[in-house]
Design a protein that fits this description.
The chain has 93 residues and is α+β, with helices and mostly antiparallel strands. Helices cover 40% and strands 11% of the residues. The radius of gyration is 14 Å and the shape is globular. The structure holds zinc ion. The site of zinc ion has 8 residues, from loops.
């Protein structure tokens, strides 16, 4: 069951960008379960492919997250503490 879901998510992420929330809504799972799935998927596709994280830019101050490695969304901007960040997007490259 888990394996099937992870294979499916792997397929979805190969087609387009997804947010963690979109995946959580599709599978009716907690985001932390999806983060765990994504970590497994990332390990299984390495080193030929990786899950690219398209990080948000803070609309309040323009801060841009660089080289994010975590699949969970950042909770606030480290520069201005804005908590209304747009969601990061994930895709397999
Ligand atoms: Zn900011």
């Amino acid at each position: 069951m888990e394996q099937t879901r992870r294979q499916e998510i792997r397929g979805l992420l190969s087609e387009r960008y997804w947010t963690l929330d979109e995946l959580a809504a599709r599978y009716l799972l907690h985001r932390r379960v999806l983060v765990n799935d994504l970590e497994h998927i990332a390990r299984s596709i390495a080193p030929l492919q990786r899950i690219e994280i398209l990080a948000p830019t803070c609309e309040a101050c323009g801060f841009r997250f660089k080289d994010r490695t975590r699949f969970s969304d950042p909770s606030r901007c480290p520069r201005c503490k804005n908590e209304h960040l747009s969601l990061q997007r994930l895709r397999i490259r």
